[in-house]
Amino acid sequence: MKNNPELIVMLTYNDCTVKNAQEIFEQCKNSKANFWGFKEKPLPLDEMKKLYAYMKKCGKTTFLEVVEYTEKECIEGAKIAIQCGCDILMGTLFFDSVNELCQKHNLKYMPFVGQVTERPSILNGSIEEMVNEANKYLEKGVYGFDLLGYRYTGDAVTLNKEFVSQVNAPVCIAGSINSYKRLDEIKDAAPWTFTIGSAFFENKFDGTFSEQIDKVCDYINKTI
Asked: Over the stretch 2-39, which tens digit does the pLDDT of each residue have?
């Protein structure tokens, strides 16, 4: 039986947290989305802590997605997630040191797979390599994976379906989901979660920020 994918609302534009993230969350906290997150840049740590604390007070599951590629930067990102009391760390290239830090602090870890570069991110690599990489990380105890499906330089639709079906763990398809066509593809691939950030800011789903969230939640849960 296929999952009903859950929307993670990302208060981000072009892979950076928007400055008015707190204000937008306040406007949208009663929308149908239960999963919320943002990136590790550029909000000051104190602002991030306050916003995550407020999200959790509102009953939300919280995510920090870290778009960094060196071990030092990835460890710093994990430390931010820990200090903020996040539920799940997404992103970073996998490093044993980051994984160990997450396990020590009971932080669920969903690293990138494949060859990830740039910001906004670009994904390279073969599907087989990514599946093998994921299975190797699962043996080390990671919770799941941050799959940059629509940032892939190859066939995104095939990657999303094959990866989700071949990896026995929670998968988040993250980035560039900006149309109902892609929502249909997400429903078909049936990952655990998917993110939308920039598309809401660009009004791709037509309405206020809160209205767009509810439209996406209703569409993804609609049965044919």
From this structure: 668 999 999 999 999 999 999 999 999 999 999 999 99
171 contacts: CB under 8 Å, gap ≥ 6? 144, 145, 147, 163, 164, 191, 192, 193
Distance CA 85, CA 56 (A): 9
What are the respective helix, strand and coil percentages of the chain, to the nearest 5?
Answer: 45, 20, 35
- In the chain, where do the E strands start and end? 6-10, 12-13, 16-17, 35-39, 61-66, 88-91, 108-110, 115-117, 122-124, 145-147, 171-173, 193-196
Question: Is the peptide bond between 120 and the residue preceding it cis, with omega within 30 degrees of 0?
Answer: yes
Q: Which run of H or of E encompasses 101?
A: helix 96-104
Fold of 6-221: TIM Barrel (3.20.20)
Using the predicted structure, report yes or no on whether residue 89 has a pLDDT greater than 80: yes
Question: In the sheet that 145-147 helps form, which strands lie side by side, from edge to edge?
Answer: 108-110, 88-91, 61-66, 35-39, 6-10, 193-196, 171-173, 145-147
**Distances in whole angstroms, Cα of residue 214 to Cα of each of 57, 78, 94, 205, 222:** 21, 30, 33, 10, 12
What pLDDT, on the 0 to 100 scale, is given for residue 224? Answer: 56
User: Domain extents for the chain?
Assistant: 6-221
